[in-house]
Each structure stands twice: as structure tokens, then as C-alpha cells.
Amino acid sequence: MGFSTDAIHAGQEPERATGALITPIFMTTTYAQEELGINKGYEYGRRDNLTRAALEKNIAVLENGKYGIAFSSGLAAISAVIHLVKAGEHVIVTDNVYGGTYRLFEKIMTGFNLQFSWVDVSSLENVSSAIKENTRMVYIETPSNPTLNITDIRSTAELCKKNNLICAVDNTFMSPYFQKPLNMNADIVVHSSTKYLNGHSDVIGGIVITNDKDTNKKLKFIQNAVGAVPSPFDCWLTLRSTKTLALRMKQHNENAVQIADFLKNQNYVKHVYYPGLKSHPGYELAKKQMTGFGGIISVDFGEEETARRFIKKCKIFTLAESLGGVESLMSHPATMSHASVPPERREKMGITNSLIRLSVGIEDIEDLLGDIDQAVQ
Ligand SMILES: *Cc1c(COP(=O)(O)O)cnc(C)c1O
What we know:
By secondary structure, this protein is of the alpha/beta class. It folds into two domains: 3-242, 3-Layer(aba) Sandwich (Aspartate Aminotransferase, domain 2), CATH 3.40.640.10; 245-375, Alpha-Beta Complex (Aspartate Aminotransferase, domain 1). The chain has 14 helices and twelve strands. The protein has helices at residues 3-9, 50-62, 74-82, 99-108, 124-130, 153-162, 175-178, 213-226, 232-242, 245-264, 283-289, 304-313, 343-348, 365-375; strands spanning 67-71, 90-94, 115-119, 135-141, 166-170, 188-192, 206-210, 271-273, 296-300, 318-319, 329-331, 355-359. Strand 2, helix 4 and strand 3 form a beta-alpha-beta unit. Helix 2 (50-62) runs parallel beside helix 9 and helix 3 packs across helix 4. The mean pLDDT is 96. Pyridoxal-5'-phosphate (PLP) binds next to helix 3 and helix 4.
């Protein structure tokens, strides 16, 4: 089936009792058991919920995966993934990783004796030379946040296979519409569904997808044992959202391409980070492994004053954390998403005080360009 057909139908059948077309919100914490030891396969809401199961199936199909395991936030999903690694083991991570992931790994998981190497994984040699005897996982994020570095998923996954390592990919920025890491032999895909998957800035959620039966079993166990499950209502909203994922992603991409093109020609702009620009170091690779460039653009204005003025004067672009919603947002990574990253690491990553990240929404392009133009006058 095509992507949109799957998005609209996968995991969703008319409800058995009434024929209700839309998957109901099963608001129940428990299930009646007929006799001791006899039930319908459902016992307790933390472990099983039908609305959640429909969402898990739906997104798994979109990622071309067999299993989906949903969580109450993207970080809960990432936390479940890192629980696959045990004390004394080592993980190689994109040095440009989402700030919250850095915080979870470096400030929490090191306390459980997990070891991390922060590596520029856009070079395969760097990954290769970081592998140690106790390495268990390579965790990548591509495009990365906020400078949109591109990592070769296929060759990283191949290197992982050779060395018996788990290859995990955070696919939040692309969504399965533009990038399918499992098709490139990654073992695990993780999403903050808070972003494009839900896309309406009203649900915090996360999901992990895999093709491996054993990994799924472990993750299901972690989901139930650790307990960061999403509410049935949140699952229902996200399931409603994935139906329009293709339409939304097309428009995010179309608008972002035009905005990046516009910005790169302005003399008040020092640098535009967007994988759809030929000047982007990851452009060729992006064209190969993605079917679109996405809706995130980072702009370095060179002068902090210009960045401040831009933030102050924009009317449609709203200053706010997060990304991937239908409305256009902007953020200041140095003081917002990446505030927990030490300043010297930030500087190395290109996260200057004059850098602004745009999450381009699906409003009319003329209005978005007009907003940017008036903001810098
Ligand atoms: C937002 C985000 C996360 C964290 O997800 P939450 O839903 O906020 O917990 C992880 N990875 C990326 C790339 C993100 O953008």
C-alpha cells in the first residue's frame, strides 16, 4: 500500500461491538476476568490498551517495521532504548544529539555505569575508531539538531552488523514519510511523536519501532516494567494526526525549501543550515537517503543583536520550544533546547548566540516570507 493509505488504515479496523469506524479511546485501567486464569488477553492498562495498540501498529507500518512500542514522551522512548544497554557497556552517540538525550545519557545513565563516547558520526571512520570491546550500541540522529548534520544510516548500520552492535536512529526530524531507517538496516527507530507524527503541538509522546522479535520483547517488558506509557487519549490524538502526515510533511518541506532559498541570499544572514541547500555538506547524502529535506532550518545571523531583533519582530513565527507542528515556531538553541549542553560543547557544535532554529509550519508561504522580511527591516 502507499504511505497515505497505510497512514489512514493501518492498525485500524471498525470496532467489533458497534462497527464504529474510528478506533475508540479505551479509557479503562483494567479488564474483567471470567474465571481465575481466564481472560481475553487483557489484564491491566499499563500493559495493554487497545487505542495504544492501534497507534503502535499504525506507526510501525509507516516505518516499514513489525513492532511499535509507544511511550509517554520521546525521552521515555529513548530511555527504554538505552535500557537495552547494561552497566559496564559502552555507547557511541552523535555529538550533535538532541539536548535532552545528552542530558539523559550523560547526567542519569552514567550514574548506572553506562559509558558514552560523543562522536561526529557523520564520518564513519570516527565511529569505527570509537568502537571498544564493551561497545553495545551506536545511537545516531539524522538530520541532527539544530545544525542538521547528515549521517549515512546504511553504512553505519553495516558497521554495526559487522561488530554486533545495535544501531538506533532518532528519526524525529524526518518522520517515516521522508526517511525509513529500518529499510537501511538500522535495528531500532525512535521518535519523539510530540513533533511531526502528532504534528499539532498538543501531545507529548514517543515511540520505538523495530523488526527484531527479541528486541521488541525486551522493549515491551521495559515499557510495562518501567511504566512510562501514554494515555489512551494521547494515543487517539496521535493516531488521528498520522492520517495527514503525508500532506503535512509535503507542505513543511515545500515551505522550508523556499524559505531556505530566500534566507541564503540575504546579506544579514551569515549561514543557513538546511540539507536541501547545495552548500550543505550533507546535501548529496540527504538526497540519497531521504525523500525530502524536512521543515527545519537553522539560521546564523552572525550578530546576536540581529537574532534578537528577528525574534522580537516576527509575528507568525512564534518563539517557543519544540518543532514539527502545523504552526511556524522559532527557537534559540543556545538558551532553549541546548541550554543544558556545556558552552564549550555548544560552540563546537555551531550553536552560537546568533543561531535561530526555525520550524517551518504549513501556513501560506507568502505570509511566512513576508513575516521574515518585515522582521529584519
Ligand atoms: C523533542 C525531541 C526529543 C524528546 O522528545 P520529547 O517528546 O520532548 O520527550 C528527542 N529527540 C528529538 C530529535 C527531539 O526533537
